[in-house]
Amino acid sequence: MICDDLEAIIAAHSIEELWPTIPARMAEYGFDRVIYGFTRFRRANSFGDPRDLLILSNHCSDYIDPFVKGGLYFDAPMVRWSAGNVGACSWSWVRKRAEAGELTEGEKKVLAFNAKHGVTAGYSISFMELSSRAKGAVGMSARDLTQDEVDEIWARHGREITILWNVAHLKLISLPYNPGGRTLTPRQREALEWVGEGKTTADIATIMGLTPATVEKHLRLAREALDVETTAQAVLKAAAQNQIFRVEA
Q1: Which residue has the higher pLDDT, 234 or 48?
Q2: Of residues 189 and 47, more confidently modeled
Q3: Are residues 215 and 132 in the same domain?
Q4: Nearest 5°: CA angle at 182, between 178 and 183?
Q5: Long-range contacts of 12-20 (CB under 8 A, 24+ apart)
Q6: Is pLDDT above 80 for 145?
Q7: How many domains does the chain have?
Q8: Which of 31, 162, 174, 197 has a CA between 20 and 30 Å from the CA of residue 124?
Q9: Are residues 30 and 128 in the same domain?
């Protein structure tokens, strides 16, 4: 079974193709809701611009909108744990901190919100990254189970779940993604690719059969789509999001 899952993950050509299979597989283990997050633009005291976050989840919008768009995630205890750790962690860690009186008011607010939505028992995995600015993690919750029951599931299946998620994470961050729907057009992608190759605007105009003014227009629209100020930043962000130099399916 795990080999079938791994083959499906490896063969996926897009996030849209890959993602639905993962929550479905986690539900078979008992984790009926999952939320995955990744950024390549983490800063010292934050995860960077929320618009640059890749968030994938099967939670309902009543939960996701306040948690992500409303910024509750920033005070979520397991998110904070994930930011500073690598590996898997039982949510019993939060219970122990609560019993010891170590939770902040912000964390208590998140726990109350989670309890309202039945997000009380689960496990989190924080992935190892090679960049200090990158961070990915997933939180898995089990609606109708206690934390002790979740821990029993993990004792039996934690290793294979961790392997599945690590492979899925590596695949997800290799696929093109565009938070906020900021997709580059083919012409914008091509112009950025040539900039990345060290070509001047005049060079690019000749290569693409366009006027320099049209090339500048494509680069300006690419900067706007990626919400950056310079073309160098646009090349960096587009490359980080796998939007350029990509192989089409």
Answers
A1: 234
A2: 189
A3: no
A4: 75
A5: 12/171, 12/175, 13/175, 13/249, 14/175, 14/176, 14/249, 15/56, 15/172, 15/175, 15/176, 15/177, 18/168, 18/171, 18/172, 18/175, 19/56, 19/172
A6: yes
A7: 2
A8: 174
A9: yes
Please check whether residues 117 and 33 belong to one and the same domain: yes
Instruction: Report the distance separating Cα 5 and Cα 171, nearest Å.
Output: 13
Q: Is residue 249 part of a domain?
A: no
pTM: 0.83
CATH number, position 55:
3.30.450.80
On average, the pLDDT of the chain sits at: 92
Range of the domain at 213: 181-240
Which of 126, 153, 172 is the endpoint of a domain? 172
CA angle, 158 then 241 then 138, to 5°: 20
pLDDT for 236 beyond 70: yes
Domain shared by 192 and 81, yes or no: no
For residues 187 and 76, state if they share a domain: no
Question: Mean pLDDT throughout 147-174?
Answer: 97
Cα separation, 31 vs 144, in Å, equals: 9
**pLDDT value at residue 179:** 67
In this prediction, residues 38-56 reach a mean pLDDT of 83
Closest CA to 240 of 174, 183, 182: 174
Q: DSSP 3-state assignment of 215?
A: helix
Q: How far apart are CA 228 and CA 157, in angstroms?
A: 43
pLDDT at 176 over 90: no
Coil/strand/helix, residue 55: strand
